[in-house]
Amino acid sequence: MKKYSLIFAYLKDYKLAITSYIVCTILSILFGIASLGMFLPFLQVLFKVDMGAIPVSNGATKLSLFQLIKEKITVLVSTSTPVQALGIICVLIIISIVLKNVFLYLASRSLMPAKNKVATRFRIDIFNKVLSLPIGYFTEQRKGDLMSRMTNDVGQVEGSVLSALEGWVKDPLQIIFYLIVLFSVSAELTVIILFFIPVMGFFIGRLGRSLKKPSGEVAQKSGESISILDETLSGLRVIKAFNVERAIRKKFADNSYHLLDITNKIGYRQSFASPMSEMLGVTMFTSILYYGGSKVLGNEMSLLKGADFLTYMAMFWGIIDPAKSISGAFSNLQRGSAAIARIEEVLNAPVTVNENPGGIQITHFNESIEFKNVSFYYEDVMILKDINITVKKGETVALVGSSGAGKSTLADLIPRFHDTTSGQILVDGVDIKDYSLFSLRSLMSIVTQEPILFNDTIANNIALGMENAGQEEIFNAAKIANAHLFIEKKEQGYDTNIGDRGMKLSGGERQRLTIARAVLKNPPILILDEATSSLDTESERLVQDAINNLMENRTSVVIAHRLSTIRHANEIIVLRKGQVVERGTHTSLINQDGFYKRLVTMQQVK
Questions:
Q1: DSSP string of 433-446?
Q2: Architecture of domain 353-443+557-606
Q3: pLDDT for residue 59 is more than 50
Q4: Which of 108, 116, 180, 518 could in theory staple to 445 by disulfide, Cβ–Cβ 3.0 to 4.6 A?
Q5: How many angstroms separate the CA atoms of 388 and 409, rounded?
Q6: What gap in Å lies between CA 230 and CA 228, rounded to an integer?
Q7: Calpha distance 402→405 (Å, rounded)
Q8: Helix boundaries (H) for 79-211
Q9: What gap in Å lies between CA 528 and CA 599, rounded to an integer?
Q10: Range in 124-133, 272-281, 339-348, 358-367 with the lowest mean pLDDT
Q11: What's the confidence (pLDDT) of residue 508?
């Protein structure tokens, strides 16, 4: 059961609900036994068996529940007419069945909130873990697969594992209590039953274990389907422009049919579990029926008469259904265990960037950002090596170089999207790892090459992370970002919904909204990651003006694609293959006639 330890860890917070479930389940089982216990006096009355022939205990003998019921009912009906006795028995059967189902309902009701809360906590914990994982984790993961783990896999755990665990409490308890009663009636016949149960368990176990591997494949293929769908919706323009609809359709169909084949295999095996358990159960029942019946007919069982034997068999039949349920639950557990394994992969993923909530709270930026012998490796591949840079307060430092030189990675180290492999990054002389992550990032705003917007109103996108921002503050931020005029022209103004990832806006409009968002936050440190590289000339001018407004009186780290935009930087750092190869002002680097000048010349030629 080790593989279900994650479930048990969540369930331990609901001990009261589980205890209530177990108590109500036991009571429902006892009333179920009581209703079957009345089967014997019913037969005795119906077939006019002498009620006085049944010995009544003087109280000194310890009775089982079944024997106690039999004795009390016998005393009750022995002084009544046969019709009155039947009426009494029928009323008692109804009462016991009603009480059985009342406690069955109470058992289900007490456990249901716990089951639902566990599933909800699964989703929340996975979502929270995704938010806490470093950016580098997602370069190896497909977004659709992560979405599948949060939806399909958690649904599998909720529908299979938690429901199966509920049955694994109720059904074994029912079998145990029924076996105790059966032992009290006939130990000889019950020993034979105990011989058959392990045989059933062996076959059911083999079938259940065969479901685990294909269940994992189903989860994987479901994740791939969601990934294909997500990529298709994101890249629909490219798909249509390059006429690859047929290839995408084939890719999705192939994955779907592969998923169908695996699902069918699981369905065939799972469908076979219930008939197989029923066949084994009927085989066991008829074997006991033949063996016990022959003994009763031959008067070889002096303590077990015909009516007792029929009652025994009715009680024994009560074991068949829970045995079948256990077989189904075992199959579901095997399917769910694959889902649990996939969920645990996310929950147990290492958080390489420690948030350090108890760290130093930094509220102001006073001096400098300093890189001291910083190196960064990703899976043993060198990305940055021996970087030494100092960015003083109020300065603008630009990072330039070819694609893959390490510019974005270097900038990502400042807000700790990654942590350095070696060396230190100091803010005001303190290692950024010693600050609380929240307070460190509160000092910064980032404007990326691709505008990151959400399916919400313009106002809410500008006020992201600034819940208490007033309307006037939002307007002023938009004006500084050269966004106010185009927003005012929208039918609903600042309340306009911009659609998925802001697709209702142009590229320049989207970028100006992200700049307005950065302006509203009013951070002392600004990181610009090629914020104008994907824009047309007119949009670039508007966005560049907005960026210039944003950079006033701020410390800025600028990743530049168009080198004309960083001529006035205090220092330009030229990176090549993860190392600093040149540094200086625009004029001094041009005079060096090195790599930077070649980059400038190439852009001028274009």
A1: GGB-HHHHHHTEEE
A2: 3-Layer(aba) Sandwich (3.40)
A3: no
A4: 518
A5: 15
A6: 5
A7: 6
A8: 82-132, 143-148, 154-156, 163-185, 187-209
A9: 20
A10: 272-281
A11: 81
